[in-house]
Design a protein that fits this description.
CATH architecture of the largest domain: 2-Layer Sandwich
Radius of gyration: 33 Å
Keywords: Membrane, Transmembrane, Transmembrane helix
Protein name: GGDEF domain-containing protein
Number of strands: 5
Pfam family, one: GGDEF
Strand order of the largest sheet: 1-3-4-2-5
Number of domains: 2
Oligomer: single chain
Structural class: alpha+beta
InterPro entries: GGDEF_dom, Nucleotide_cyclase, Rev_trsase/Diguanyl_cyclase
Shape: elongated
Helix content: 55-70%
Number of helices: 9
Distance between the termini: 61 Å
Order of helices and strands: HHHHEHEHHEEHEH
Largest sheet: 5 strands, mixed
Strand content: 5-15%
CATH class of the largest domain: Alpha Beta
Mean pLDDT: 82
CATH superfamily of the largest domain: Reverse transcriptase/Diguanylate cyclase domain
CATH topology of the largest domain: Alpha-Beta Plaits
Length: 284
């Protein structure tokens, strides 16, 4: 109902804008002696209306107020210096210019609301999305939900849980060497490399796409995590010798940090990630 009302107001504003333009054309054609002056003022009126469209109605009306004072001063000057009388033509632009501004603002109200709503929906969708659209991997939003579940299982059934944080070394420099259309593909290849190194009941997450950072939740202790780390690095070395160096013209290196879950020291999923990232400093 609200959208229909906004659409109706926008349509009425559009019709009113067309009517005002028609009135301006008739007025200008009926005053051939002031043709140049009227054309200049009409252009100024359109300019003020466009400023309103790209800013706010308050800014547009403020500029219109400045125009009215300026135009009024010009009319007074002509009256005093040339002895001209103030006629109906003088009041036409004093009324028409702010009217054009207000009507254009009403006309564009609906589209501005739609744009704002679209931005809100996009932000909401990005916040609620749990899967990366390019790699089909679960993202940091999904990690927060799953980590709470996994840590609860770990505590209840006394099953060790370890988080691996995997990051591509020198990614900020490497991404300058890889064409933009291959960046997502490189992230996908590394994701597949990590995915193939874990069991089906372990979970892989793309924590930060821009910084090429993954998270692996493993139901194992630190010793078991070391086996997974060695397996990932071995597979990466194989791919560097065969596929990666040919495909991307660079050798990719990984830094991997691991931390085992302890309820006493890890309060929430963010803390889990932070502590695992600290371990990256020791993997050079």
């Amino acid at each position: 109902m609200r959208r229909n009302r906004s659409g109706l107001i926008s349509d009425l504003g559009f019709l009113a804008f067309l009517v005002l333009i028609f009135i301006c054309i008739v007025f200008i054609s009926g005053s051939p002696d002031h043709y140049i002056q009227n054309i200049i003022i009409l252009n100024l009126a359109f300019l003020l209306a466009l400023v309103t469209y790209f800013t706010t109605v308050t800014a547009g009306l403020t500029l219109n107020l400045a125009f009215i004072f300026g135009y009024g001063f010009f009319i007074v000057y002509q009256t005093v210096s040339q002895g001209e009388t103030i006629g109906v033509d003088t009041y036409f632009w004093l009324i028409m210019t702010p009217l054009l501004t207000v009507v254009l603002w009403v006309f564009t109200t609906s589209s501005r609301e739609l744009q704002a709503e679209n931005e809100r929906l996009m932000k909401k969708s990005a916040n609620l999305a749990t899967v990366d659209e390019n790699t089909d991997l679960r993202n940091s939003v999904s990690f927060q939900k799953d980590a709470s579940l996994f840590t609860g299982i770990s505590t209840r059934y006394k099953i060790p849980l370890t988080l691996l944080v995997i990051k591509v070394k020198y990614w900020s420099e490497i991404r300058r060497l890889i064409p933009d259309d291959q960046l997502s593909e490189a992230i996908y290849d590394v994701s597949q490399l990590s995915q193939s190194s874990i069991r089906t009941n372990d979970a892989l997450y793309l924590l930060d796409k821009d910084d090429a950072t993954w998270g692996l939740l493993l139901f194992t202790d630190r010793e078991g995590a070391k086996i997974v780390i060695e397996r990932i690095k071995f597979k990466l070395q194989e791919l560097n010798d065969t596929e990666f160096s040919t495909k991307y013209k660079v050798n990719l290196g990984l830094k991997i940090g691991a931390v085992e879950y302890e309820a006493e020291t890890i309060e929430n999923p963010f803390d889990f990630i932070v502590q695992a990232k600290k371990q990256l400093e020791y993997d050079v």
